Amino acid sequence: MGPSIVIVDDHPAIVDGVRAWCAAAEPPIRVLAAGASPGVALAGTGAEADVVVFDLQLDGAPAFRALTTLADAGRRVVVYSQHADSDTALRCLELGAATYLTKAEGPEHLIPAVQAVVDDLPYTPPVLGGAMAADRHPDRPVLSEREREVLLAWFESDSKQLVAQRFHLSAKTVDTYINRVRIKYADVGRPATTKAALVARALQDGLIDLAGL
Question: What's the pTM?
Answer without folding.
Answer: 0.72
